[in-house]
Design a protein that fits this description.
- The protein is mostly helical.
- The protein has two domains: about 200 residues, no CATH class; about 35 residues.
- Helix content is about 80%, strand content about 0%.
- It has eight helices and no strands.
- Helix 1 packs antiparallel against helix 4 and helix 4 runs antiparallel to helix 5.
- The longest helix is centred in the last third of the chain and has 45 residues.
- The chain is globular and about 65 Å long.
- The N and C termini lie far apart (about 55 Å).
Length: about 260
């Protein structure tokens, strides 16, 4: 039993450290970080006397940020619940965001801060990191549920061998799911330029300005999102009302 639990937690640790390390290393190579790095160094210069006595080199800022990110990732992993892994995903996406901006055709941050996006990493690197973050998030959410199910089955008196067999099957299913997700994303990545070219040819033949098409699509997406949120939000209320009605309904009287 301990071997299976150790394997699950070790897999979680590996994904946690790998995703956070790659996201942090990518952040250090982005244009936005290069813009803010002199500001961070100037703020640290106020403690120059103390840092000088401690013989701390300010040029180790990159290493310090990397170590801080890994330390936070370890804290989230040690917590081991969905809330902790949700914060881990938010941290990784925050570090991943500047890399996406370097390749964005509309960099809205440059409207606030005057800087020139200059990618120092390839688009394939950014895509691979995005896939890694997505795979990590999916895997960690599932492993949390797997561990919860193990505990529930053991509390109900299930045999340890049977619980281990269930966990092995779940992990095999998860591996298949992650492999399929990665394959689909890779297919979409390499097919996107071809699809973009075909759609551009079709769009150029439309008798409407592109801005009209963009506004119409945005309205449709917003309307679909609102309808989905209303539908998903109304179901729990209906279920609660049904449960309350069932509890208050008097039992049938025997004839």
């Amino acid at each position: 039993m301990r071997r299976v639990e150790t394997f699950i937690r070790t897999a979680e640790l590996g994904l946690t450290l790998a995703s956070t390390y790659m996201a942090a290393v990518t952040l250090l190579q982005t244009s936005l970080y290069a813009k803010f790095k002199p500001l961070l160094l100037s703020l640290l210069a106020y403690a120059e006397a103390l840092l000088g006595r401690l013989h701390v080199d300010l040029t180790l800022l990159d290493f310090a940020l990397l170590a801080l990110a890994l330390f936070l990732a370890l804290l989230f992993w040690r917590r081991g619940d969905e809330a902790g892994f949700g914060r881990l995903f938010s941290l990784n996406m925050l570090m991943f965001f500047p890399a996406v901006l370097d390749f964005s055709m509309f960099n809205w941050v440059s409207l606030i801060l005057q800087y020139e996006p200059t990618p120092h990493i390839s688009a394939l690197w950014v895509f691979g990191l995005g896939v890694l973050l997505q795979v990590t998030y999916i895997a960690l959410r599932y492993t949390v549920r797997f561990r919860g199910l193990r505990e529930e089955l053991l509390n109900r008196g299930a045999e340890v061998e049977d619980v281990d067999a269930v966990s092995r099957g779940q992990m095999a299913y998860l591996a298949l799911l992650l492999t399929g997700t990665t394959a689909i994303l890779a297919l979409l990545y390499y097919a996107a330029p071809l699809v973009e070219g075909l759609l551009r040819l079709e769009a150029e033949g439309l008798p409407y300005p592109h801005i009209v098409i963009g506004v119409a699509c945005s309205i449709l997406i917003a309307a679909a999102t609102i309808i989905y949120l209303r539908g998903s939000g109304g179901q729990p209320e209906a279920e609660q009302e049904g449960a309350a009605a069932a509890e208050t309904e008097p039992p049938d009287q025997p004839p």
